[in-house]
Protein: CRP-like cAMP-binding protein
Organism: Tunturiibacter gelidiferens
Amino acid sequence: MHKEHAFSDLFLKFLLARSMRTQADLIDQLFNSSEKRLARILLLMAELGMLGEPEPLIPPITQETLAEMIGTTRSRVSFFMNRFRKLGLIEYNGRIRLHKTLLNVVLHDELPEQDNAEKPRIGDTPRTQGRAGALK
């Protein structure tokens, strides 16, 4: 590695990028809801938010694999995927196609507005939404 400076530089860049990704994954696991973690992993898989034109199609992947990646159950992944589909954030017919609005879920921690409803926040459940409304 001492003699191959170009390779050494490339290898160090790779290690640094991998270390940063590992730290980001740990922070994501500790501080974000499973719904937000799912949105983030879908974006990472489609490379949305990266420079250049992203490919909005996710490679074929099972809900079980997604659940393992974000640390939740397959049934929760199914629930969140259906919720994302109903909100128009994804199309889900065998392969997952993302819409750029999913990026707002991760960046701004908000779901798109729904008719005649308050803006739900990521991680809200009907039970927590009811409590928040009762406290107002």
